[in-house]
Design a protein that fits this description.
Length: 147
């Protein structure tokens, strides 16, 4: 059976699609994070594992991409949460409080897969996410707002 084996999530057997939750540490933050893996063959899983083993660097790149995004997408996400949760934070303070709660590996042509990091102010506070998609080489490809 195909498997994704990473330092972050350990070994996850993949039967079609897989979803697991594990306590993981990225940077200084230890949280229960989810991992979703769409149907990939073993060579793509092996390449994805190599990329996920750089999770600290990917997290730093994702956070920089979110901070650098000057579209209404990120501004509206921040404004909504500051107002809805009555938070007295600057936009940069708010962004620093985002938690990486999910990692997703999806089939994507032509590179074989993409990785998406999901960021939230907290599952208990909001179902809104900022999602940062990386291509198979680890380059940020997009930032999106999802709910």
């Amino acid at each position: 059976m195909p498997a994704l084996e990473t330092k972050l999530f350990g070994c996850v057997e993949i039967a079609g699609d897989a979803y697991v939750q594990r306590e993981t540490t990225i940077g200084a933050r230890t949280l229960t994070r989810s991992l979703y893996v769409g149907g990939l063959d073993q060579p793509a899983l092996d390449r994805a594992a190599i990329l996920l083993d750089t999770a600290d660097a990917l997290d730093a790149h994702a956070r920089e991409a979110i901070r650098a995004d000057d579209t209404d997408l990120v501004k509206d996400f921040i404004a909504f949460h500051l107002e809805e949760l009555s938070l007295e934070l600057s936009p940069l303070e708010f962004l620093a409080r985002l938690d990486l709660i999910g990692v997703n590996v999806h089939p994507r042509e032509p590179e074989g897969f993409s990785v998406v990091f999901d960021y939230s102010i907290g599952r208990a506070q909001s179902d809104q996410l900022l999602a940062v998609r990386f291509d198979a080489s680890g380059t940020v490809a997009a930032v999106s707002h999802e709910s």
